[in-house]
Amino acid sequence: MNFSNITWLDDKGHVKPPLMLYLLLVFIARGWCVFIASLTQATDRAGLVTLFYPHKSDFLMALAAGAGALVIYATVIAERKRKPAWVRPIFPYMKWLLVLLLILDGGLLVQRVLHSYYVYSWSMGLDALFLFWSSLYLYKSKHLTLYFNDWKEKE
């Protein structure tokens, strides 16, 4: 018998969100992270943004895709408090929303590759690697599946 899954439960018996879920949400919302980091530079705010996103349209699309990750993050925070009843019916479908956001992120990666005329850059290579790992994690993670199935509508 394997009792390692007991560490996944909180003190009330609910499945805790996995750490990889938070890292996955940061990966999807990396456009927002770059935007927030660029606000800390007083002299050249656009310099950091153009380092990661040379084209303005790529950056705006990353912000749009990251908005979905921010919604999922807010839902996870609401689930931890178990307060709003309107979140309960949509919570089991969050995994599919994550899959949709990863597909959108893959499309944005293809757009960035096309804008760079197929020239390799380290940021696109790392994005492709993290996209692949994230897809595998969504497919294989037992902890994430149990977490999304924990808060179901009451019968």
Radius of gyration: 18 Å
Q: Largest sheet, if any? A: none
Structural class: mainly alpha
Number of helices: 7
Poorly predicted regions = none
Terminal-residue CA separation: 30 Å
Number of domains: 1
Helix percent reads 55-70%
Portion in strands: under 5%
Shape designation: elongated
Average pLDDT score? 84
Got a strand count? Answer: 0
Tell me the series of helices and strands, N- to C-terminal. HHHHHHH
Keywords:
155 residues, single chain, 7 helices, mainly alpha
What does the model show?
The protein has 155 residues and is mostly helical. It has one domain (17-150). Helices cover 66% and strands 0% of the residues. The chain is built from seven helices and no strands. The protein has helices at 19-28, 30-38, 45-52, 56-81, 94-115, 122-140, 142-150. The longest helix is centred in the middle third of the chain and has 26 residues, at 56-81. It is elongated. The mean pLDDT is 84.
Topology summary:
Blueprint: H1 19-28, H2 30-38, H3 45-52, H4 56-81, H5 94-115, H6 122-140, H7 142-150
Helix pairs in contact: 1-4, 2-3, 4-5, 5-6
Q: Quick recap of the structure?
A:
With 155 residues, the protein is mainly alpha-helical. It is 66% helix and 0% strand. It is built from seven helices and no strands.
